[in-house]
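Please check what follows.
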Amino acid sequence: MKKEEIHLEDIHRILFGQAPPMFLLEVFIRTILIYIITLVIVRWLGKRMSGQLTIMELAVMLTLGAIVSVPMQMPDRGLLQGVLLLLIAVLFQRGLSLIGFLSGKAEDITQGKCSLLVKDGLLQIDQMEKDRIPRQQLFAQLRDKEIFNLGTVDRLYLEACGIFSVFKSAEPKPGLPILPPDDKEMLTYYLQSTDNNTQQADLQACLNCGNVEQNHQQEQPCKVCGDNAWIKAII
């Protein structure tokens, strides 16, 4: 529209646009038809589309959203164009899924790989930086699984679909406390419990990577990451 065609008092244009009011009924019919077609297509894509989405599935969903908006609202666009675009997007996604099934390398390219973020109670700092995963976000995922000590974790993976998979140690081990930093009361409770245990009182955990050392001298850097910030390990 040209600037001189815009008038704030033009209520008819604001409410109905440049199409006649009868087009609202057509929009209603178009929306129902596109909605039904989209439901059928999403159902065809499989159960994964209703769960945690992979990168490729998320891209398909965004594409579907962009496609369906035009045939529902534009009076000069037919429904068949939108349906054709939907079918092309679906066939493209199904084709990539088949290629990924036949080739592990192609699957890594299209779906991504899982990342190892914790190994034997130690944070994998380089991988966390590469994946841009903050410590507190990772610790929150562990606390959600009732884990409050990093030494309890044998492996923690960030899956390609964005979820965290945690494998606990068979036996509890002392490690870095991963309690919320603002909960001083709970942290003090665990540290005092550690002080009462003579076998654990001399264990220190690196705040940067979670490495646990015995009889550590505060001025010495961590043997794993080189950092020099420590806290008592808890179990």
Observations:
- The first helix runs from residue 11 to 16.
- Helices lie at 11-16, 23-45, 55-73, 79-102, 104-111, 125-131, 135-144, 184-195.
- Residues 38 and 159 are 28 Å apart (CA to CA).
- The mean pLDDT is 79.
